[in-house]
Design brief:
Chain lengths: ~120, ~120, ~120, ~120, ~120, ~120
């Protein structure tokens, strides 16, 4: 059975490895910053992941939404909290966010099924 | 033969049903508003659908374009009127809209074929 | 008394003249196309101006909104039709459109006062 | 002395009143939803305000940022938490967010001064 | 073996032909302008293609990125120059550009393989 | 006489200093990267500044446009090259870029006057 979560991760990791193997310092540092920015600081990891999720949703980036949905799932964030975050995204970003909401919902279902 | 129109509608309806079955009031109300906003008011339904189409095109949302193209088709809006609307979208939104124009054109052809 | 409408038009015309006095053919042709695209065709001028207005609103461009509001006003489009168009923009584009809705409302008031 | 916070609120309230006095149901309901969406639910008010702030920042809407900064301030959110939220916005949204970061910083200073 | 480059070009050309066969003057002229704007002028073709590439990347349009990547490749632009251009896009446009960076990298590999 | 260039720089430097005085590592590193990314590499500084300019223009960020216009000016880039870059931005980003083109043109005039 095709598995969206595994496919997404496999492609992401394969391409990230290739990109990072190249010697572009700006890109490397941005990837590095991305890891650091979501570590616990004044805000906890859970809040930061929700910030990443809502930003990805209002900017309508499906792959970014998937990435943060998976991190949310691993952090033990509930479906209700995720949906509340996505509802704020849909209100702020408008109905143009709805197609991404559908894909997000489907991806979350796969995350739950994968367990 | 794969049929883009049917596939699009089937997925949209399936996921909308799931999303609405959840008890998120903000999302439910946004879906409701979406139905109400396109009903006849000071502007007629046809004009409103063209407003929905051009907005979807400049915001470069393929699924939103498809949704409004189908509504336009059902309202009896002509291909020439749709293309004129999309030409305004391409002028205002720039050549970055062209890839969405190609997909819109293809979807309209399928709507005509489906009859 | 400061007059937003006159100030906006004076600045726009002054800078457009300077830009067009330069010999950049691509820019000249885009300005030309902009005039042609909003002329009567398969769709009437009124519908096209509303398409321009809603696109400007979802793309959140205050100056573009002002420009199309003035054209709408000159075409005899009613305040109710303008507000219905802007309500669709706010639904599709999200609450992020609201600050632009406030400025649009204020500009429309000035258009009515100027008469 | 000019006061950015008071000016912003005065203009916002004046125009919101005018817009809501008109009988446009879609706009009224969106304003209503906006109030409801940020009430405590599965997520607390503080988290929701940070979600509103980060969304406003990545979408680069100065007025929306100001609105959520003031709500954050009233909720007792610390400057460090606000800056961490804005740092995530700058990473996800890119350096294009920096001009909005400068204005956000200035507005926060005024919120602190106003006390 | 499926070939992304050929598939992309075949679909693009097929749909462009259909769109241009229609008698929409605004669209025709925009397509025409697109050809003219990237010809040598005060800036050389190579620089213009990089401008097209970086714009497509910050606007997150995969098809536009592919189109300019192919033109860059034909102009003899090196992979290092392309990656440096995309690194600037990722910095300015934010981490939201990264999913498009992955697809761009993959497409460039196919361009090199196709030779 | 008010001077747009000096005002812009004074405000930018004052706020950047305040932001960097705070101990937010993510923001500090992004500011640092911004300096590094535009240094000579596989592409020369002039080309990189034009990449920064066109990206700022299609993303419609007035302050970012001003920043790169000043760097372009200091690098000895001609007005014709700047206008050609901005014409590509207007074609790709659409007529929605025109209000930013007007402000860019005005800022460039001030840069020339300041000499």
């Amino acid at each position: 059975m095709p598995n969206q979560v595994e496919e997404f991760n496999a492609y992401r990791l394969k391409m990230n490895d290739k990109i990072l193997a190249d010697d572009n310092k700006v890109i490397k540092r941005i990837f590095n910053l991305d890891t650091n920015a979501f570590k616990e600081g004044h805000l906890d990891v859970k809040t930061k992941e929700l910030l990443g999720l809502v930003s990805s949703a209002v900017l309508r980036c499906d792959d970014c939404i998937k990435y943060h949905l998976e991190s949310c799932y691993k952090e033990g964030i509930s479906k209700e909290e995720v949906m509340e975050t996505l509802s704020i995204a849909t209100l702020i970003g408008g109905t143009i966010v709805i197609p991404h909401l559908r894909k997000a919902y489907e991806f979350w279902e796969e995350l739950e099924l994968n367990e």
